[in-house]
Design goal:
The protein is built from 12 helices and 15 strands. By secondary structure, it is α/β, with parallel strands linked by helices. It has 3 domains: about 150 residues, D-Maltodextrin-Binding Protein, domain 2 (3-Layer(aba) Sandwich); about 70 residues, 3-Layer(aba) Sandwich (D-Maltodextrin-Binding Protein, domain 2); about 90 residues, Alpha-Beta Plaits, CATH 3.30.70. Strand 3 and strand 4 form a beta hairpin. One of its GO terms (biological process) is L-phenylalanine biosynthetic process. One of its GO terms (molecular function) is prephenate dehydratase activity.
Length: about 400
């Protein structure tokens, strides 16, 4: 019979850390001369020694980042001489790296912060070949620009453009490597112009970005009593309608092409204000009229699509978007959806739009769980061809990393 452990024995050694994860240690205070009535003495830290240790760690981190960047250059050389930066970019690989970062994280830093750090490391490494050029709805200071920075990092080159249509055009022409366009908001639904562009464009969806959107009221003076008119994008007016009714019911609401454009106009007069993100306030020198966000939905989130010219390989956790044109007949929608149900494919979203091809013909935008190269997806799409007028694969791309 095994011996019972001796409770008076010395405490067990701290277990070794799991592979790939840093061991968590903390100082153990010494016992105070064996007198159980006295509290343990607090651990004493030498501030200078702690700072020397931090400096040492910083040097190690910097050396490892440089080493990683050199390996990234070797990857580029292994691919041979390619035409442009876009040929070196692999969104499926980036998504895999970022998911591993989240899986390894044991704190104290948040998943979001670590993902941001590693995104910037990958962005700067890719820029050693050549920076990516990313088109977005401008001018500088829009939520679209924030989505670009979140997904591609600050080593990419942003190209602010006047409209969503122009973003599509610049990517199609090759003047931009990728574009970032808004597609839906958690409170206000779909941005229809983006879906309509896919009716005629041959571009593919290469990724998605989820951006938490906080709307602020900003003006030159920062005084709410001065405000007679407010500039904002129509989506921002919808997202803040309740707050505006309660607090500024009589002001003139002036819709503009982007919140950054609204901020640009508001900086020219004390009786004007704009709605937008904090970045627009910094860019255009405005003050917050109220310090807290004014959107009606506290969890207000906008989903953006990354558009490019190719479909990339699977990342292991992907989404596929298709556009299906059907004729107006009884049971048409059931015929479209049933192949996916039979093959166990989850549908994340469906949206209908007039096809612009024929009267009473509709296009259904459908988001599906999985990649177009998955066997189940191949079989479902093959069956779907029998019931639809046309199927257009808009893209298979990594699901946004949390």
């Amino acid at each position: 019979m095994p011996k019972k452990p001796d409770k008076t024995a010395a405490p067990k050694a701290t277990p070794a850390a799991k592979p790939g994860k840093a061991a968590k240690t903390r100082p153990v205070p010494a016992k105070a001369g064996g007198d159980k009535t006295k509290a343990p003495a607090p651990a004493q830290f030498d501030l200078a020694e702690v700072r020397r240790r931090i400096d040492s760690i910083d040097r190690e981190i910097q050396a490892l980042i440089a080493e990683r960047a050199s390996f990234s250059l070797q990857v580029g050389k292994a691919k041979g001489k390619l035409a442009a930066a876009v040929d070196y970019y692999r969104p499926e690989r980036e998504a895999q790296v970022l998911r591993m970062v989240v899986d390894r994280n044991e704190g104290p830093l948040s998943d979001e912060l670590l993902v941001h750090i590693f995104r910037e490391i990958m962005s700067s490494s890719l820029a050693l070949q050549e920076p990516l050029k990313i088109g977005y709805l401008g001018p500088e200071g829009t939520f679209s620009q924030q989505a670009v920075l979140k997904h591609f990092g600050r080593s990419s080159v942003g190209l602010p453009l006047a409209s969503i249509e122009e973003v599509f055009q610049e990517v199609e022409a090759g003047n931009a490597d990728f574009g970032v366009v808004p597609v839906e908001n958690s409170g206000q639904g779909t941005i229809q112009i983006t879906l309509d562009m896919f009716l005629t464009s041959n571009l593919k969806i290469c990724g998605e970005v989820e951006l938490r959107v906080q709307q602020f009221l900003m003006s030159r003076s920062g005084r709410i009593e001065d405000i007679e008119r407010v500039y904002a994008h129509p989506q921002s007016f919808m997202q803040t309608a309740g707050w505006l009714r309660a607090n500024l019911p009589k002001v003139e609401k002036v819709p503009v092409s982007s919140n950054a454009e609204g901020a640009r106009r508001a900086r020219g007069a004390d009786d004007a204000a704009s709605i937008g993100g904090e970045s627009a306030a910094h860019v255009y020198g405005l003050k917050k009229v109220v310090m807290s966000p004014i959107q009606d939905d506290k969890d207000n989130t906008t989903r953006f699509l990354v558009i490019g010219r190719s479909i990339f390989p699977p990342s292991g956790h992907d989404r596929t978007s298709v556009l299906v044109f059907i004729h107006d007949k009884p049971g048409a929608l059931f015929d479209v959806l049933s192949p996916f149900a039979r093959h166990g494919i989850s549908m994340n979203r469906i949206e209908s739009r007039p096809s612009h091809h024929a009267k009473w013909e509709y296009g259904f935008f459908i988001d599906l769980a999985g990649h177009v190269e998955d066997e189940a997806m191949k079989q479902a799409l093959a069956e779907l061809k029998e019931h639809s007028a046309q199927i257009k694969i808009l893209g298979s791309y990594p699901v946004a990393v949390p």
